[in-house]
Every structure is written in structure tokens, then in C-alpha cells.
Amino acid sequence: MLSYRHSFHAGNFADVLKHIVLVEIMQYLQQKPKPLDYIDTHSGAGLYNLNTKTANKLSEHLGGIGKLKAEDYPEVSRYFELLKASDPSGELNFYPGSPLLAKLMLREGDKSWLTELHPQDYKHLVNNMGRDRRIRVSQEDGLKRLKGLLPPQSRRALVLIDPSYEIKTEYQQVFDAIAHGHKKFATGVYALWYPVVERARIDKLDQQFINSGIANIQRFELGTSADSDEKGMTSSGMYVVNPPWILMATMSAILPRLAKAVSIDGDQHYRCDTLVAE
């Protein structure tokens, strides 16, 4: 249950997609001066050293962020600015997790609610967040904690859910968490990350969202090769409930280029569509 460590995978193509979507949503929501709550149910360590034996065991960052140049993606310049702020050397020594990206974007009055169950990653998370009165960090089940955080006092929130899916029941648990959260707080933005290891599991999630009665759901997916039950994760994606109106245009513009950059078979593997209309 607690064996997964994101440090093996930090900066890979899945992180690139997840974090671009995260930054674009927060940037849009912060156009209004009203306070915003950021809720991260599976926070990880917050910052990852890409020079450790752990990171270099798989070196997945080389096939993800290592293949990208900021100047090729001006539409998402804020994402690359935050990467530079997290690693001023510019030499790909560190990669930020979602909690640090969010912290760098927090304004006065915004709040960040971070949850991490793994004891070692929790300690790293606390250290990496530092002393910041806008941020609350807890070591507990993030999906259970989410129930107590909704609706937020601000009535404006972005919820990021990205478990490891080591336990197969998590596919059902994340859907249930969003369905329950949406009933309590229908105007929140919910961003759910998923891996494509077995396409049938994602097809089932698609259908659950389609049948859920929840409107306005978009889907963005990025892959390195065609679906395969033998290669492990070949793609990953994001479901976004109540996405900013500009998100589809931005992702439609960059996903073909991202897919070409990270491809290992020479083809483009991506999805960018509306799963459920408004």
C-alpha cells in the first residue's frame, strides 16, 4: 500500500501533462481576486532531486521534461517559468511536484491543503513546503480528508487527485470521490490523473463519468506509444470537471507537439476532447 515512490518517475511525460493542466487551471482561476483553495489528495514529496540513484534508476525525466524546450511551447510559458524557479541552475537537477508548483502560485488569501500518507514522503513534503501559513500538510488518507474539506470556505477550489493506482480499487475510489465531492460542491474544479496501463480500466472510467450526471468534463491524454498490455504505462491522462473555458484551446494547440516530442515509436499518441458537454 505504501510502496509507491514518485521519485522514480518525477519529470516523466505523465508529470508534464499533469502539471501543465494544473498550472493552466490555477492561472485562470487566479484571474479573479477572490481567494482560492488548492486541495491535493496525493501530494508526494513536493520536490525531487533528479540526480539521486532513485531518479536515475529509470531516468524517466529524460523521456519527459528532458525532451522539451520552453521556447517551443509559448502557450504554457508559466509552467516553464515555475520549473526554472524550482531549479535555477537550468540543468535539470530538480523537478517540482504539484504541491510546490501550487505553492509558487499561491497569492495572499489563497490556501493549499496537502495530504500524503507515505511517512518518508510526508516528512520531505513538510520540509519542502517550509513555514507558510497558507499551507496545511497532513499525513492521512487524502480521499477521506477531501470529504471534510468540501465545500471550502472560499467557495472556489481546484482539487487535484493523482494516486498511484497500485491498488486496483483506486480506480473506483477516485470516481466515487469526485462524484461525492461534486454533490457537495458542484462548482469546484476537479482534476483527476490516470495512467493507461490497461485501456479497459480507462474505458470503464470514461463510461462512469458519462453516466454520472456530472456535466462539463474534458479529457486530455498524452502517450509515448500505442496501447499495450505488456509495456506498462504507455499513456496517461487528465479528466477535468468544470474546466476553464480556455483550457481546451490551449491543450489542443500543444498536445500534438508534446506527443511528437515524447514519442518513442515516431507516432503521435494523444487525446483532447469533451467527454461530457456542459
Helix count equals: 9
What is the CATH T-level topology? Rossmann fold
Tell me what portion of residues adopts beta-strand conformation.
15-25%
Across the major sheet, the strand order is 5-4-1-6-7-9-8-10
**Rg calculated over all Cα atoms:** 17 Å
Second CATH tier, the architecture: 3-Layer(aba) Sandwich
Tell me the name of the CATH homologous superfamily: Vaccinia Virus protein VP39
> In total, how many beta strands?
10
**CATH level 1 name:** Alpha Beta
Main sheet: strands, sense, barrel:
8 strands, mixed
Cα-to-Cα separation, first versus last residue: 37 Å
Q: How would you spell out the order of helices and strands?
A: HEEHHEHEHEHEHEHEEHE
Broad structural category:
alpha/beta
**Percent range for helical residues?**
25-40%
Detail the poorly predicted runs: none
Shape: globular
Protein topology:
Blueprint: H1 13-29, E1 37-40, E2 47-49, H2 53-58, H3 77-86, E3 94-96, H4 98-105, E4 111-115, H5 119-129, E5 135-138, H6 142-149, E6 157-161, H7 170-184, E7 189-196, H8 199-211, E8 217-223, E9 235-241, H9 247-262, E10 269-276
Helix pairs in contact: 1-4, 6-7
